[in-house]
Amino acid sequence: MAAASPLPSINSALTRSSAKLSVAPPLSLSTASSASSSVGRPHLYPSSISSLSSGRIAALAPISARNPSRIPAVVDEVREMADSRVPTVVDVDLGSRSYPIYIGSGLLDEPDLLQRHVHGKSVLVVTNTTIAPLYLDKVIKALTYQNPKVTVESVILPDGEKYKNMETLMQVFDKAIECRMDRRCTFVALGGGVIGDMCGFAAASYLRGVNFIQIPTTLMAQVDSSVGGKTGVNHPLGKNMIGAFYQPQCVLVDTDTLNTLPERELASGIAEVVKYGLIRDAQFFEWQEKNMQSLLARDPSALAYAIKRSCENKAEVVSLDEKESGMRATLNLGHTFGHAIETAFGYGQWLHGEAVAAGTVMAVDMSHRLGWIDDTIVKRVFNILQQAKLPTQPPEMMTVEKFKSVMAVDKKVADGLLRLILLKGPLGCCVFTGEYDRKALDETLHAFCKN
Amino acid sequence: MAAASPLPSINSALTRSSAKLSVAPPLSLSTASSASSSVGRPHLYPSSISSLSSGRIAALAPISARNPSRIPAVVDEVREMADSRVPTVVDVDLGSRSYPIYIGSGLLDEPDLLQRHVHGKSVLVVTNTTIAPLYLDKVIKALTYQNPKVTVESVILPDGEKYKNMETLMQVFDKAIECRMDRRCTFVALGGGVIGDMCGFAAASYLRGVNFIQIPTTLMAQVDSSVGGKTGVNHPLGKNMIGAFYQPQCVLVDTDTLNTLPERELASGIAEVVKYGLIRDAQFFEWQEKNMQSLLARDPSALAYAIKRSCENKAEVVSLDEKESGMRATLNLGHTFGHAIETAFGYGQWLHGEAVAAGTVMAVDMSHRLGWIDDTIVKRVFNILQQAKLPTQPPEMMTVEKFKSVMAVDKKVADGLLRLILLKGPLGCCVFTGEYDRKALDETLHAFCKN
What we know:
The structure is a homodimer.
Chain A: H1 7-13, E1 15-17, E2 43-45, E3 49-51, E4 57-59, H2 63-66, H3 70-83, E5 88-92, E6 99-104, H4 111-115, E7 122-128, H5 132-144, E8 151-157, H6 166-178, E9 186-191, H7 193-205, E10 211-216, H8 219-225, E11 230-235, E12 238-245, E13 250-254, H9 263-280, H10 282-296, H11 300-320, H12 335-345, H13 352-369, H14 375-387, H15 400-407, E14 413-414, E15 417-418, E16 420-423, E17 430-433, H16 438-448
Main location (chains A, B): plastid
Domain 3-dehydroquinate synthase N-terminal (chains A, B): 155-267
Enzyme class (chains A, B): lyase
């Protein structure tokens, strides 16, 4: 393996990007909204005043409004990232639980980045049968390079969403206990979203909580699931029903791992990238429209930029609402419909991003039926997802009844009322609300299902 | 059921007891100790300076030193509790996660106490086959009395430590999902320590965390396991290996539930009461020596006093060290030996307190071999446990090897070093340390095992 750059040189070369953006007054679009949160009342994001768990009130404008000079900056930033191979750092600001996201090419060849976040003498790498042959040795080398005190064990789980359950999770506990891992050990998640979610929940629960590092190897995990501390497993009746909010020590995104990613997996990740544009970052959406071919062709600088900008958006939302009291729910655009597809169709039949893509089209359709967005947005969403070769409608087996029955146990149901993330206003604005005409939901379901 | 007293009258009648005790300078006994924590360095409790997770430094003297006038107060307090049937309140001070422990006779007939801590419209009572016929109806009545908006469901688990595992836990998730419980629901643990630990972990993990109330019905749960937020299940290779720190909304101790408690269970709880005396409250230990017959005869005022004083001790320790960075580990006196007995002998063969009693005798024996305590303490511990009809030695099947192999995966092992809670100095003082002569541990194991 390549020799590690010395620690100081990495540190000094870090390009630090703050996830905290300045707060600007609401746009004229904003509806007046009281600061107190209640079930069903719509919260308009990002352009409304929203009530957060901490009691803080945040007034957020869309990214473009906060930084009018951002369009030229996009081009500069992409160039800058293409020119350098040093990691970019996006900080997730959560007080004592804050952590960095390192993004860059070849980061798995930088032992210092990983080793600085390992505490204690034992590490358990949790990965799967697909990723282990590709990157497990590399990660073990990075963890042990010039570091003889550390013992690294690994557990290799079967690959796929259908194994994201309590039974598979027990294999992680079995291995940790057999290896006598103690409270000072570190769990490392090496893989996609399923591995990250399961390893994170295992780390949250093993001995009531141990250190934890995320090394996401899919675009989906790099832009979304590895950031923000949502961990868990599925239940036969619902996605991610059992889990914990548990933050990692760091997230290490080596963009080189995308070189081995199947095309379907790449597209699946793009569904979440598109989401950030739609819910809060119109300029990012416009950039995606112009650069979709580069993303699909795996242009390294385009991918690196998409990952960075996605992580910045996610980090900002998570910093403001870690436990999903309100704003964080907006990251679930298309996910209520999408989770219903994944659960009813059978976990793993469709990739998560594929189900989210179809779910996004449905959420956008419903927003339009409510009169909350104009039809140009509907068309642009349809086009960009189709360009990314993502599904734009649910699988044929999905009936209206199937949607309704799974959506009834969605985590965003409160006191019997299903709350949804819907677009409202110009591109980049959304609401999280239980106040919508039920007829529109019915019409959308009937429009997308044969019965 | 009895009509509820109106809320204001309960409030005004609450006898509030602060778990925060004033901080006094260390006794002359104290050893000088640096503020930084390291594996193996002994922390002397309660009379030493200890380093806590929060970075705070606490100097704590034993309870008797902090309040020299405490002995007469004990008598007064017992009288006061015997005279009144209003709840005593012990506060667990954990910032935004603070909560009250209500202690009193007939509290399950006070719907307001429970209802004020229920959020949302749905409640899931988790109980077992022994407790359900005795108290489930009473609890459901208390939850629904003049409160038609609330729906109460229940899940009745098999009774016993051997069912404290992931498989049984899944029954709680199954029921919650089948009943479409949402994030605003409340889980209520009605039972002993096993039910409290499992229901608490279920509440911590269901939808990544829902409200949670403890109604402990055994002395063990009332004086120890229901307070402090330690939740979890066992693994075949170790006790409580999988779980979470998750605090309840309140703990409601109706001392009347002890009337139906089997004698063995009562004695099991007394083992934890004795523990508080030994590790930090010499006067409480002396009170127990004088009042053991009253406790065994279930004298209501003696039991209520023992519960209150135990909860005060536990609340104070938990407030200072919620996540067990140091001081909280002292609550595990006798537990490392005890957990080894429970795991190797088979979960449920002995009650938890029975194993802890034998483990306490072993820890005290080892402390004496190290020259850390004089033999009068050894004799007093032996006598009080024998008076309570608790085991004073491990079961015959326990070998030195069995102890060693299970203790190697104890949660208090750090980087391969087993840390133990041992008594040191006068009655009421202990240390949590990895710095002890291994020979003493070996001698103790050989003294208590046939091979």
